[in-house]
Amino acid sequence: MSDADGDGKVPVIVLTAFILLSAVAWGIWTLQIGGGIDPDRAKEAAERAEKECVLKGIDPSRCRELIGENQRRCLGDARTRTTKGRLVLDESTYSSCMNEVFQRVLDEDQAP
Questions:
Q1: What is the pLDDT of residues 20-59, one digit of tens each?
Q2: Exposed, middle or buried by CB within 10 Å (0-12, 13-18, 19+), for 54?
Q3: Rounded to whole angstroms, how far apart are CA atoms 32 and 8?
Q4: Dihedral of the CA atoms 66, 93, 48, 40 (nearest 10)?
Q5: Could you give the CA distance from residue 13 to residue 55 in angstroms, rounded to a whole number?
Q6: Contact of 47 with 93, CB cutoff 8 Å
Q7: At what angle do helices 60-78 and 39-55 cross, to 10 degrees?
């Protein structure tokens, strides 16, 4: 092996290590600090909202559409931080946000 081969490996190893460390740091930031809501919790919240929507008398396909249109906003409104700094979903805020959407639709449907 020549010196040229050895010199070419060093930058590749350094760049690979940098990329891996950056990915790990990004993952930690996203999940712990910058945060997002656990996707399973978000899905469960959407399923509960859909049941509530149907119970209010809105067509099930319209309920799925409403939840899809408003999920991101309501999840954003319902995010709160624990004392450890982790983002969690405030169920009552999420439910209130979705109920406002459902009530608005019901009011529009009943308007002359």
A1: 888 887 776 665 554 567 788 889 999 999 999 999 999 9
A2: middle
A3: 37
A4: 100
A5: 58
A6: no
A7: 130
- Quick one: tokens of 24? 């790990």
Measured CA to CA, the distance from residue 36 to residue 18 in angstroms comes to 24
Angle at 8 between CA 7 and CA 9, to 5 degrees: 95
Residue given tokens 């995010």 in the structure block: 79
Q: 3-state SS of the chain?
A: CCHHHHHHHHHHHHHHHHHHHHHHHHHHHHHHHCCCCCHHHHHHHHHHHHHHHHHCCCCHHHHHHHHHHHHHHHHHHHEEECCCCCEEECHHHHHHHHHHHHHHHHHHHHCC
Note if the pTM is more than 0.90. no
